[in-house]
Each structure stands twice: as structure tokens, then as C-alpha cells.
């Protein structure tokens, strides 16, 4: 037996509607979660403004959202990991556990990944911006009663950044550059500081983002628009930084990172943009390691634990919370970097 719940549904670019979607009862091994908070991500904004990103295009209406926290409201047969009333963060990734990469221990690269609010598959994988959703019990990770839902909803983007930190190797005692201080860049600053970074320098073109970066632990902030030559001292003697995290997806930022990283340093590319030129000569001559990073796996539970223990404080990143019935205004606010870092929708 199924019912219907209200949801935030994207139909095409700028065609965001408040509608209803079906809700089935949880089956064996599944749980029903009453959603409390949902964070608007950069990919949600791409669907809102462009109808997709890269070659990924909307082909049917899709519920957006994958940064979700709520409360378990029902459980299916055999579920023992959570019970009704438990507060949880919902892991939006569901790997098949049967493909080549899952069997090799790389589930983040699952060939049959089902990721909430994604048009990469057809039919699309419906997202979490709805009053209730049904997921596997494994996806519903307990946060503890003391963790507010608005904090728990940061688990997914924080997990992305924790995975990026792991891709960098150890950052303890090292000099770190972060290019791009949007939500992912800001969370990378927090994750790098937690991992023991000795010094963190950040760049961005938005003064408001740089101000938050300094507030949460950056040692220096450079406005690469207003002061385009400010990184030059860091390029002397073949570079200054041991590790760089490129979180903007901008080709100029990557070129700066390559110039600023010292020989045998590592650059972790987090941001996704279009095709960009890469100075291969510098990479080869300085023996730089350029590493990609994509999503996460076990880092999601780690992120929940760090948030629950208050080991990482994400509260300064939350700019506003709007009712999900006012989703269009929330998406417009989230699109304005001068006014917002992270905007969440409230479903309670």
C-alpha cells in the first residue's frame, strides 16, 4: 500500500514545483524517514539553473536533494540498527555491492550506483527533498538525539571533503592551499584543520566566502579577483605548499595550484568544471601528483560521528533555513554567493 507526500520537484531549468510523489511502506531491511532538514547543494543548483550539468540532462521530473537529515518514523521487517524515533542522517549513496568496483572495494565507483537526486540514470534516482522517504536501513545513520538536524544535514558534503583529505595522504604538519571557498571549500578547510594542517591559505573571488573562511580557521585569505598577483610569493623557489585542494573547478585556480605547490606535492581536484588546459611541463618537472576525488563511502559514517561529537563545527556555514514550500526563494538565495554559503530547507 502506498500514499503520497509533498516534495520539491524540478521539471526543467527554472521550473521548480511543489508537488506530490508516491511513498511506499518500508519493506524488509528498509526504513521510513520523516525528513527534517535538506541542504541545497551545487548540483541541485545546476539542475535548477541549467537543467543538468555536463552531458547529464533532465529527461523527466525529479525530486531534488541529497543532503538529508530526519527521524525514523517506521521500519521494515528485520531492521535492528534503528528504531522509530531515532534521529538520522541519510546517506544518499546506494552501491550495488555486486559490480566489478564494488567487489574490488571501490563502491564509490559502483557501475550501478543509485544516488539521490541524480539524473545520471534513467529513470532518474529521485532525491530527498520530500516530507518522507524510504531507504535501506544501512543508509539511515543514527546521529544521536543531541545532534540538531541542521547540523546532521552537513554529513554528506562533509563526507565529500573527508574523502578528499584521505586522497591527499597525511596533511598533518603540512602547508595547505584551498582554492575556492564555497561550501565544499569551506568544509575542506575545516577537515584539513581537524587533520592537523600546519597552515591553510585560501583563495576565492567572493569577499563574503573569504570572510567565513577566516572565521573557521584559514590563516590567510586571498581575493584572486581583487588581488590577482597575491599568490606570486608562494610560487617562488618552485612553490610553497605541500598540498593543494582545488575546489572551484576553475582552470586558472588549478594552474595557480600547480605553480604554488612545491616539488613532489599533491593536488587534489575536488571541483568539477569543463575542459581546462593543464601545464603538463610543470607537473612533470616538479613531480607533482594530481589526484581526483569523487564522492565518498565509509566517510559518511565518519562525518556523522565528527558532527555528533562537535569535533568539526559547521554551524558558521549555515546561512539560512527556509520552509520547503518556499523552495524557489531558497534556491535563489543559495545561488547568491554574496548572501549565502549554505541554505537548507525545513520540512518540519
Describe this structure as you would to a colleague:
This protein has 348 residues and is of the alpha/beta class. It has two domains: 2-154 and 314-346, Quinone Oxidoreductase, Chain A, domain 1 (Alpha-Beta Complex), CATH 3.90.180; 161-292, 3-Layer(aba) Sandwich (Rossmann fold). The chain has eleven helices and 20 strands. The strands form five sheets. Strands 3, 7, 8, 11, 12, 19 and 20 form a seven-stranded mixed sheet that branches. A six-stranded parallel sheet has the order 15-14-13-16-17-18, sandwiched between helices. A three-stranded antiparallel sheet has the order 2-1-6, with helices on one face. Helix 6 links the parallel strand 14 and strand 15. The radius of gyration is 20 Å and the shape is globular. The model has no long low-confidence stretch (mean pLDDT 96).
Amino acid at each position: 500500500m502506498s500514499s503520497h507526500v509533498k516534495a520539491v520537484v524540478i521539471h526543467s531549468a527554472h521550473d521548480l514545483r511543489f508537488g506530490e510523489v508516491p511513498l511506499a511502506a518500508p519493506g524488509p531491511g528498509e526504513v521510513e524517514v520523516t525528513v527534517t532538514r535538506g541542504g541545497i547543494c551545487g548540483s541541485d543548483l545546476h539542475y535548477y539553473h541549467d537543467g543538468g550539468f555536463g552531458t547529464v540532462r533532465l529527461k523527466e521530473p525529479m525530486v531534488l536533494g541529497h543532503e538529508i537529515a530526519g527521524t525514523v518514523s517506521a521500519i521494515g521487517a528485520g531492521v535492528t540498527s534503528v528504531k522509530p524515533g531515532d534521529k538520522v542522517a541519510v546517506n544518499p549513496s546506494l552501491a550495488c555491492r555486486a559490480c566489478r568496483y564494488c567487489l574490488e572495494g571501490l563502491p564509490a565507483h559502483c557501475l550501478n550506483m543509485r544516488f539521490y537526486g541524480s539524473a545520471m540514470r534513467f529513470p532518474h534516482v529521485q532525491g530527498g527533498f520530500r516530507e518522507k522517504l524510504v531507504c535501506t536501513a544501512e543508509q539511515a545513520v543514527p546521529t544521536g538525539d543531541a545532534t540538531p538536524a541542521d547540523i546532521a544535514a552537513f554529513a554528506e558534503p562533509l563526507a565529500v571533503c573527508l574523502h578528499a583529505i584521505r586522497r591527499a595522504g597525511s596533511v598533518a604538519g603540512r602547508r595547505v592551499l584551498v582554492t575556492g571557498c564555497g561550501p565544499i571549500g569551506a568544509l575542506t578547510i575545516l577537515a584539513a584543520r581537524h587533520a592537523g594542517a600546519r597552515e591553510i591559505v585560501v583563495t576565492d573571488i567572493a569577499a563574503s566566502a573569504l570572510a567565513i573562511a577566516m572565521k573557521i580557521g584559514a590563516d590567510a585569505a586571498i581575493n584572486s579577483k581583487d588581488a590577482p598577483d597575491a599568490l606570486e610569493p608562494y610560487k617562488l623557489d618552485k612553490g610553497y605548499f605541500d598540498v593543494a585542494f582545488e575546489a572551484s573547478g576553475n582552470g586558472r585556480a588549478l594552474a595557480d595550484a600547480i605553480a604554488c605547490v612545491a616539488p613532489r606535492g599533491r593536488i587534489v581536484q575536488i571541483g568539477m568544471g569543463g575542459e581546462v588546459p593543464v601545464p603538463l611541463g610543470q607537473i612533470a618537472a616538479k613531480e607533482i601528483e594530481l589526484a581526483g576525488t569523487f564522492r565518498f563511502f565509509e566517510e559518511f559514517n565518519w562525518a556523522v560521528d565528527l558532527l555528533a561529537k562537535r569535533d568539526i563545527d559547521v554551524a558558521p556555514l549555515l546561512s539560512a533555513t527556509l520552509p520547503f514550500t518556499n523552495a524557489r526563494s531558497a534556491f535563489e538565495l543559495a545561488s547568491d554567493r554574496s548572501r549565502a554559503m549554505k541554505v537548507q530547507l525545513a520540512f518540519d
